[in-house]
Amino acid sequence: MRPTANRRTSDLATTIFCWTAAVLTMLAVLAVMGFLLYRGAGTLGPNLFFGETHWWEAVRGVRPVFDGLWSALAGTALLVLLSCLLAVPTGIAGGIYLSEYGSRRFRAVAGFAVDLMAGIPSIVMGLFGFSLIVVLRHTFVPRAKTGLLLAAVCIALLVLPYLVRTTQNALAGLPSHLRLLGPSLGFTPWQNIRHVLLPSAGRGILSGVILAMGRAAEDTAVILLTGAVAQAFLPRSLYDKFEALPFRIYYMAAEHRTAAELDQAFGTALVLLMLTGTLFGLAFAAQRTMEKRWKG
Amino acid sequence: GSLKSFADLQGTLDIAGGTAHIPVMNEAAKRIMTANPKIRITVTGGGTGIGVQKAGEGLVDIGNTGRALSAEEVARFGLRSFAFAVDGVAPVVHSDNPVAGLSVQQVRDIFAGRITHWQAVGGPDAAIHVYGREEASGTHEVFWKKLLNKETVVGSANIIQSNGAMKVAVSRDIYAIGYMSIGHIDDSVKPLAVDGVLPSQATAIDGTYPAVRQLYMNTKGDPKPLARAFIDYILSAEGAGIIRAAGYIPLQ
Amino acid sequence: MERMKRIPEPMLEIADLSVRFAGKQVLESVNLDLYPGELVMAIGPSGSGKTTLLRAVNRLNEAYPHCNTRGQVRIRLADRWWDIYAPSTPLAELRLRVGMVFQHPNPLPFSIYKNVALPLRISLGMNPKETLLRVQRALEAVQLWSEVKDRLHDSALTLSGGQQQRLCLARVLALEPALLLLDEPTASLDFKATRHIEALFQTLKQRYPILAVTHNPGQMRRLADRVMVLQDGRCVAAMSRPEIEDPEHSRRVMEAFF
Amino acid sequence: MERMKRIPEPMLEIADLSVRFAGKQVLESVNLDLYPGELVMAIGPSGSGKTTLLRAVNRLNEAYPHCNTRGQVRIRLADRWWDIYAPSTPLAELRLRVGMVFQHPNPLPFSIYKNVALPLRISLGMNPKETLLRVQRALEAVQLWSEVKDRLHDSALTLSGGQQQRLCLARVLALEPALLLLDEPTASLDFKATRHIEALFQTLKQRYPILAVTHNPGQMRRLADRVMVLQDGRCVAAMSRPEIEDPEHSRRVMEAFF
Amino acid sequence: MPHLLRAAALACTAAAGGILLVLIYLVLPLFTSGGWGSVIAWQWLPFQGRFGILPMVVGTLLIALGALAVATPLAVGVACFVQVLAPGRIKGICLALVHYMTSIPTVIYGFVSIFLLVPLIRQWFDRGTGFSLATATIVLSLLILPTIVLVLQATLRELDRSARVTCAALGFSRPAYIRHVLLPLCRRGLLAAVVLGFGRAVGDTLISLMLAGNAPMVPASPLDATRTLTAHIALVVATDSQSTFYHSVFAAGLILFLVMVLIQLILRRLGGTFTP
Ligand SMILES: Nc1ncnc2c1ncn2[C@@H]1O[C@H](COP(=O)(O)OP(=O)(O)OP(=O)(O)O)[C@@H](O)[C@H]1O
Ligand SMILES: Nc1ncnc2c1ncn2[C@@H]1O[C@H](COP(=O)(O)OP(=O)(O)OP(=O)(O)O)[C@@H](O)[C@H]1O
Ligand SMILES: [Mg+2]
Ligand SMILES: [Mg+2]
Ligand SMILES: O=P([O-])([O-])[O-]
């Protein structure tokens, strides 16, 4: 009834290792969040968002906001929305195709392309976007400018491979009997995907979408080169330059002139954290309801 | 030349480039937009290199530089420059650092990595933390040409991306030394006297402090109406007030 | 199994079928005709290729890696012959008409109800009301209705082994296929339930010819119209109804090949 | 099942065991003593709680959500009694000594060899040479060795249904447990293989008492020393060896409860 | 529907190809002008015409591999903890937190570290400015941790579903189950996770830009400043757009790209042996 001493030690080591890893990670995250809360919570208030400007005028875009993060907040929201609109359908569709349809050859080529794209650092993607505009200006579109649309396209390209790969992996990870069963009941491949595989893989795919949205909201390197500026106010068209929360934080972290401005930076970071947290919470809730629906 | 000239204008004006200029640009933008909300002015930094490049490629309407354009840059992009202020570049240390001044040679030795300890220049018993700017910076170019005599900054120097950031970095590191636009200096950092001359706008303008430059706005070709109005405003009397308040000396 | 001359046309024709997995011969030159109204049973030792034979009929072997199939499988639907391995054959439709119950029950990780209803909704495009009716009828046919009617929305994975097996059978019956493939459909059932399901098969075979696998000699005697004996992937013997009923003869066959 | 007075102490004692899943009573007040050298069989209609009873012995019901167990299960190992549901009981060790074969074969997605070898290596800390020997012996015992000896390093998932079932049995036997729980261990086997495995159980029960589930009345008659009949989670009847052997009596019991 | 899917897949492929082509097009001037010799070198002294970016390559690899070395074991521990060892309540909290970590922006890690970690490093080791290889590595590992954990845990969950009851019945203790069943079976998932993590680490700009000190040299100790290729691009892209100086930026971009190609190729080769 007693295990060998050897085995007991390895078991104990494994247990301690796992616990330590978990506790360390949790402590690190809590430290980051706690520090932000401690430094930033005090600044939360209408002033942080709208500065001296009246909030209603600011929201309508009638009057610019100085010393407030409203424009950055709006810019980031637009950016996430636009880029997800572009990337999410394409990425999921591409992932499904690669996992369920494509020929071996196509799958290999496309899979490789997607992996490569996943490897493109965001700054290179920004560089690509920036150079693209320069090239376009010299050739077909002399009026092309960096701005919201360009940034959204680049960010969409950045998150696309994540979406493709998580979709593909989630589908590939399903047990083989699920894959056998649909066909044996006469489903077409698409029906099998739509009604059996996708619902089963839904969790995995949605967590891919979460990852993607998070990245879109937080990426700084791409927008650094494709249209984010330190002071811009609400964009009026897709081609306008814009402010974004992460860029504002990056900028203020280095450039704050007074202690008050530094506090503002902490407040901004806290807001960004809450924003991404909310996005994340929404996605999480969606995931839950979806799961309930397909299981019923 | 005054805010009234913006009354009939509308549209967007994009400004980028030199980081020394940012306080001036921001303040002017704020006043103009408050007077006429139909005008939108976007301001961002990036450094002198960005100013040349973006204005040159036509990606922004006004590109700022912290140095004069080279003949090649002017020829290639067809840029026009508008100088608006005089500024100096000064070595700075943490305000608690007991060292108050260095000789030019000491400055060169420190930035070249030949002097690595504060004690060698009469400071505390600690290693010197050198902070520098990226090569495309106008501030860097002026400091490198006029004080360092084109000697390369030591490779281990931490590279900082703007004047504002240099101030923050030096003010947070008690053993730091860096260099920045005089206009940006405030209580949080301490400028070092060089060969006995304390860098200030006064010593810069009277020629006793050597590392001096002008700040420019640049446009590709002749400025468009909104850019024209903006440049005129900066060069006006009201603009001079803004420039002075930001710590620079307006060019009349 | 040599072809028998009968007046009606067969429903299913397997000719010279060979299957290899990763180079290993699992089925070799198997022939079989299945006529309407008939229940044919494949028996043979474990690993002799019975399951592979069934899977070959609706091309499910292809779901495994390194599978190589040769030979012909044809099926007659609405008086037309379809070559199952022809590239032009609409595979999904075909599989829909060929109902298969697997050796080990494989309910989907959905609710009990949805397991049966989903194929109806999707493959047949049935409306919800009709679906409910059809689900109930199918569950009643396999005698599962009374056991699960109060928990239709529980996960099917919480059912007991025998319940799962009946659920999978109900799922296939609900689709009213043209042909049934049954891989040991009563292996997890108690003898009473087995009898009931067997009686069900007796009625069903009038409507759909059935190709079944069994390990139970008693079941074979009770149900089979013909028997084919597989050994190492080859069809080594066949028995007709009179031979099956002759205990002496069938005993000899079993002794010889198991 | 009322306790029988025998001289040897029992190996396993189940007292007043009740199990609920999500509020639904699946087992109710089940009692059973299992003595050394004995093979007890649980029979009952599908869904009557047989599998749940076996799983209660090594606390596997807990792996499913909303499970609630009451009552006592005690096991005697090396002359010490262990209360299986006591928090202090070393669960992993205990499960190691209680070998269980599932109703549906569940090979791990490793190679055939590793499926049997891994528990030996990990749980018993056996060295590689000894392991190889033990694996071979176990596979021989279930008559799988000759079929798989050339492909020991293929994935176990490519085995046929019956082969998988024997593999899972071999995996448990290799561990030489103190007690065997068998959930329809021959459901996917042909009659010849079944006979062989049954003979194996006859020898095994001398070493490990066995608690088995079967659906096959013939198997029950051939193997069982005692039988408990479950219906709706309750133990509704018991039969001793003479009763089992009496065809009239056992037929009556079966008719009554199925 | 399949046609739409196919179109999307083609779009993804085309995008990747397009980006590669544009990058190559932009680097071409370096080949024609023979600038490569000056780019593949160890010294970055642009005013003396030396545009070597090898120090940045080394800096990138050091930081990324360092972060991976810290994050991978942690992630394996966390994933196994969550999937197998954690008591119900804690499992939920821990998993939620890891999910939440994916939504913490890079720039926030950088920003907070400037005020939290940099001064600590400066004080503890009493050497260097605190902006160093070590600082960036630590923070970067925190950044890539959730990516690795989540990808890994997705694999673990599927495995666990099919193997847990079986292994429990075979008497595996939970830690033994982790070591001998889950971990060997999730090699593929782990590999995928690590590659994703490495990609993120190599590709991250903000953390190294804000924390590594950006000195264009090979660090002699973990406390020295260093510069990554990504930070290099961010720093140097601010120059006029037609000199070798500027083209070296694209060389850096291309090198980053090629590193990824190489990794992918190695992985594919490995991949073949991992099919179960
Ligand atoms: N995890 C669970 N959750 C809810 N109900 C369950 C669960 N497991 C079993 N049941 C129910 O408990 C009852 C008994 O199940 P059990 O598996 O013990 O039956 P069984 O006697 O083994 O039947 P069979 O012979 O069909 O395998 C069944 O009605 C089943 O649906
Ligand atoms: N995917 C596969 N890859 C490799 N070998 C396979 C595969 N599927 C089946 N086999 C092998 O082919 C042979 C026949 O398998 P099959 O499943 O058809 O047997 P069976 O007659 O159904 O046996 P049982 O009665 O045990 O279910 C077996 O030896 C099996 O191991
Ligand atoms: Mg089979
Ligand atoms: Mg059962
Ligand atoms: O003003 P600069 O940022 O170019 O130094």
UniProtKB/TrEMBL annotation, chain A:
The record's Pfam families line, in alphabetical order, gives: BPD_transp_1
Its chief place of residence is membrane
Q: How does it sit in the membrane?
A: Multi-pass membrane protein
Q: What are the protein's UniProt keywords? A: Membrane, Transmembrane, Transmembrane helix, Transport
Q: Where in the cell is it found?
A: Cell membrane
Record GO biological process: transmembrane transport
Q: Which residues form the ABC transmembrane type-1 domain?
A: 73-283
Against Gene3D superfamilies, the record matches this protein to: MetI-like (1.10.3720.10)
Q: Which GO terms describe its cellular component?
A: plasma membrane
* Name used for this protein in its record: ABC transporter permease subunit
Origin species, per record, is Desulfatitalea alkaliphila
Lineage of the organism? Bacteria, Pseudomonadati, Thermodesulfobacteriota, Desulfobacteria, Desulfobacterales
UniProtKB/TrEMBL annotation, chains C, D:
**Source domain of life:** Bacteria
Single GO cellular component term: membrane
Identify the Pfam families for this entry. ABC_tran
Check the record and name the CDD domains matching this protein: ABC_PstB_phosphate_transporter
Keywords tagged on the record: ATP-binding, Nucleotide-binding, Phosphate transport, Transport
Q: Which GO terms describe its molecular function?
A: ATP binding; ATP hydrolysis activity; phosphate transmembrane transporter activity
The residue ranges crossing the membrane are: none
InterPro entries reported in the protein's UniProt record:
AAA+_ATPase, ABC_transporter-like_ATP-bd, ABC_transporter-like_CS, P-loop_NTPase, PstB-like
Positions of the ABC transporter domain: 12-257
Q: Name one GO biological process term.
A: phosphate ion transmembrane transport
What's the protein called, per UniProt?
ATP-binding cassette domain-containing protein
Automatic annotation (TrEMBL), chain E:
Q: What is its main location?
A: membrane
Q: Which GO terms describe its biological process?
A: phosphate ion transport; transmembrane transport
What InterPro entries does the entry give? MetI-like, MetI-like_sf, Phosphate_Transport_Permease
Which cellular compartments is it found in? Answer: Cell membrane
The segment(s) forming the ABC transmembrane type-1 domain are: 57-267
Q: Which GO terms describe its cellular component?
A: plasma membrane
For the keyword NAD, the answer is no
Membrane disposition: Multi-pass membrane protein
The record's similarity note reads: Belongs to the binding-protein-dependent transport system permease family. CysTW subfamily.
Protein's recorded name: ABC transporter permease subunit
Organism of origin is Desulfatitalea alkaliphila
